[in-house]
Amino acid sequence: MGLEKIITIANKPGLYEYKAQTNSGLVVRSLENGKTLPINLRHDVSMLSEIAIYTQVDEIPLGEVFQKIYEKENGGKAIDPKASKDKLTGYFEEILPDYDKSRVYNSHIKKVLQWYNLLIDSGMTSFKKEEEAATEEE
């Protein structure tokens, strides 16, 4: 399971794994509780592989940010997303020192850490794109 199959749905908590497409939408499985549910086309859906974090120079794909956290934590979970604002921003600066503080809000940092911890709990160990991971294995 790569980030290409993990989605977030607006106004629904957590992350979901894409399972199938139907005539009226998608079938997804919640990473939190494992329940499968249909999502219609009216929902705003985003793939994690398409999300990026603003930096002073460019945008960094979310998968790269997750990989940096994974390496910093030696495969463990990140700090609690409910920590104080100062702790969260300090932690995020260690991961991504040049992130754009004017466009990346505390709520974004919390969401990144929540998603990362959920993915770790779900057994994900690599956040590279599937084609990059396949190239490295060769």
Give the helix/strand layout.
Layout (H helix, E strand, L loop, with lengths): L5 E4 L6 E6 L3 E6 L5 E5 L4 E3 L4 E3 L4 E3 H11 L12 H11 L10 H16 L8 H8 L1
Antiparallel strand pairs: 1-2, 1-5, 2-3, 3-4, 6-7
Overview of this structure, please?
There is one protein chain. This protein is α+β, with helices and mostly antiparallel strands. The chain has 2 domains: 3-48; 50-133, Arc Repressor Mutant, subunit A, CATH 1.10.10.1650. The protein contains 4 helices and 7 strands. It has helices spanning 62-72, 85-95, 106-121, 130-137, and strands spanning 6-9, 16-21, 25-30, 36-40, 45-47, 52-54, 59-61. A hairpin with a 4-residue loop joins strand 6 (52-54) and strand 7. Residues 133-138 have low confidence and may be disordered.
Number of self-contained structural domains: 2
What's the number of helices? 4
Question: Quick one: overall form?
Answer: globular
Radius of gyration: 15 Å
> How much of the residues is beta strand, in percent?
15-25%
- CATH class assignment of the largest domain: Mainly Alpha
Give the ordered list of helices and strands.
EEEEEEEHHHH
- Low-pLDDT runs: 133-138
- Named CATH architecture of the largest domain: Orthogonal Bundle
Mean pLDDT across all amino acids: 90
Overall strand count: 7
What is the strand arrangement across the widest sheet? 4-3-2-1-5
> Pairing-aware structural class of the strands and helices?
alpha+beta
What is the name of the CATH topology of the largest domain? Arc Repressor Mutant, subunit A
Q: Helical proportion?
A: 25-40%
Q: Describe the biggest sheet?
A: 5 strands, antiparallel
Distance between the termini: 19 Å
What is the multimeric organization of the chains shown? single chain
